[in-house]
Structures are given as structure tokens and as C-alpha cells.
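Need S-adenosyl-L-methionine-dependent methyltransferase's 3D structure for a figure. Predict it.
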Amino acid sequence: MAARRAINPSRRVLDSGGLPLVNSLHQKSRSSPLLSVGLVVLAAFILIGYSFRGSGGISGEKEALSMGQGVSCSSDVLNAIPILKKAYGDSMRKVLHVGPDSCAIVSKLLKEEDTEAWGVEPYDLEDADSSCKSLVRKGFVRVADIKFPLPYRPKSFSLVLVSDSLDYLSPKYLNKTLPDLARVSADGLVIFAGYPGQQRAKVSELAKFGRPAKLRSSSWWIRYFVQTGLEENESVIKKFEQASSESSYKPSCQIFHVSS
Ligand SMILES: *[C@@H]1O[C@H](CO)[C@@H](O)[C@H](O)[C@H]1NC(C)=O
Ligand SMILES: *[C@@H]1O[C@H](CO)[C@@H](O)[C@H](O)[C@H]1NC(C)=O
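Structure prediction for S-adenosyl-L-methionine-dependent methyltransferase:
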């Protein structure tokens, strides 16, 4: 499903660019109706070919990956900080962020008043800048594989934010990682996940997790929370929505507030 939607842009190009070309050829070659019929049939074959390619799971995913331009929820997390402060209040005093770009998110959190912050970066930090390297050296950010239990005691943080990384975990690993994220949080867990159809294309992410992102729908996540006994925090959801509309915060990712 995700693969098919990811293909849509190329199909749209064909729809808008391909067919007018056929039409203009048609006008020039009025003397040869057979030729224009042939062109229309050819165009139809190309369109059908593209739709089939789009629905083919594996080849579709490869195509989406080679298109580059991976999106992530990192900027949604950065922009959410004032909204989260309004919704969570005192629960923002000790925050753990888990996901890509953790250095950027942790350094922004550290600039907030009354907020301590730590980060777990699931990817290699080889090309990290000097301020990121300094955060790693001081122990604020660590690189860790989130398929394994996090090296923190229960309720070490008041709030845990996780972005993108869960999109790469199969249900088998989600079953371990999500309860572990809830374990280290005292007041809640905020999940930023991609919507189906969004492109996730970082090759380094693929190498790390061994599978491309599997972007799940809101209903999939909500069903998953119910199955695994995680509850959404309704009062925080209301406050977060209110603060979002007051600040015109429009995230491109879906956000869930789960009780720990
Ligand atoms: C994950 O946990 C749920 C709820 O405990 C269970 O129904 C499901 O089968 C598990 N999935 C995997 C792949 O282990
Ligand atoms: C919902 O979140 C708030 C803010 O962190 C917290 O105080 C409250 O205990 C949470 N409620 C539940 C049911 O977890």
C-alpha cells in the first residue's frame, strides 16, 4: 500500500504530461487515424505498466527508495517542543529523545528552561558535527540499537519522545521496544510516526535496520496499542490538540500520546 502511493507522483507526471502529448500528435496527424489509435493504445500500455509496477511490493519499494528525498519527523519534533510544554507541563522536566537527529533535538531541548534532556541515536554518527560529538562525549547522546533493551532504569525520564525509528521495526521487535520505552518513562511516551505514502529513503537507515520503513496507518497503531495493553492519554491528547491549533502547528507526521 505504501509502495503504491509512493509511486503516485510518477504516475501523475504521466497523466498530465503523457496524454496531452498524445493529443497534440493526434491533431497533427489527422490524415492517419490508425497512427493516433496506435499512440493511444501505446500510452494505455505504458500507464497500465506503471500501475502494475506500483502495486508490485518489492519493486515498488525499491523505486521509492531510489527516488531519494527521505522525509523524517525530526522537524516535527523540534517544532513540537513548545506545544509539548503546554500539553505536558512539568512532565517535560526530564526528557529522553529516541530517533534520528537526536543531537539536534537534544540541544534544542537543553535550551529550554527547566528541561534536562538525553538522546538515543539509532544510527551511526560518523558525519556528526562538532557540537553533536561534544554531546556524545558528555554522555547526553548515545548511539544504541533500539532492538535491545535501553540501558536505563525504570522511570529514568519523565517523558520519552520517539521519532521515526519505530517505523523500521517489525511487530516482533515493536513488541519488545515499545514496552521498553514505556518502562523508562514515568509520565508518558510520545510517538512520531510517518504516514503511509510518505517517503522514507535514507539508505543508512535501511542498512541499520535491514528493512525499509513500514509506514502504518493511525488505525493500525491504535489497534496495536490496544493489543499490547498500551493506553493513549486522552487528557494530554486534548491539551496537545488545543495548543497545536493555537500555534498553528501542523505536523507532517502522526503523533500518539501513550501512557507509561
Ligand atoms: C505482539 O504482541 C501482541 C500482543 O501481545 C501479540 O498478539 C502479537 O502476536 C505479537 N506479535 C509478534 C510478531 O510477536
Ligand atoms: C497523562 O499525562 C499527564 C501529563 O504527563 C500525566 O500527569 C497523567 O498522569 C497522564 N495520565 C495517564 C492516565 O497516564
